[in-house]
Request: fold
Amino acid sequence: MTAPIRVALPMFAGLAALAATALAAQDAVPNVTPAAKPGLAVPPEGWAYLPELAVLGPADIYRIVQRQKGEGGPKTQMHVHTRKNAGILTRDVDVPLTAATQLKWRWKVDQIPSKLPETAAANHDYFSIAVKFENGKDLTYMWSSSLDKELGFDCPLPGWTGREYHVVVRSGGGEVGKWLAESRNIAADYAKHVGPEQPGRITQVWFIANTIIQQGEANARFGEIVLTPGTTGKPLAVF
Reply:
């Protein structure tokens, strides 16, 4: 947790644009409006809140917690609680993207942010873990309320179509409340959902939590996040 943190490039600029759009057209997404007192919450150690979200107000969403006696899951966990807000944490990494590069993590979603298909901007509340590449694009792995597993789609928020790509890893409520392990081949997902010309490196890992659009509430926990560059590379424990 000692790697230097740089200010992230805008990932949620589209969400800020959505807020501005809502002011101009209240019938579009009326709940998304700039905060009366904009600002950023204090991030957990080793992470940074994305500054573009300051327009929506402080979002004290993420806390590092230790597993309690009798609980399951990783020893150290990122507890995520979002209520009528949005927040993204960023952590810088420098990992080569090869045919064997994998992202592994464990998560437990106790409450899914959206009850509606997240492909529409008006329903686009979700939990995810994402990797950002040196070309500015990103893949974000999400738990959907109802979309088919392995579905990939462009982010529907203004300014992010063609830049951010969602992949549905889990869907529905059947496994809510359970610790689940995930492993994704990033290069294969990139080729399938983004395009054939792959970047050379992964530059950041993100936590994303959003309930600001539908004004709901949701909870999740993450842990044991590892980037593995391949059979000859040393795994990077991100969290």
Remarks:
- The two ends are 7 Å apart (CA to CA).
- Confidence is low (pLDDT under 50) at residues 1-14, 16-28.
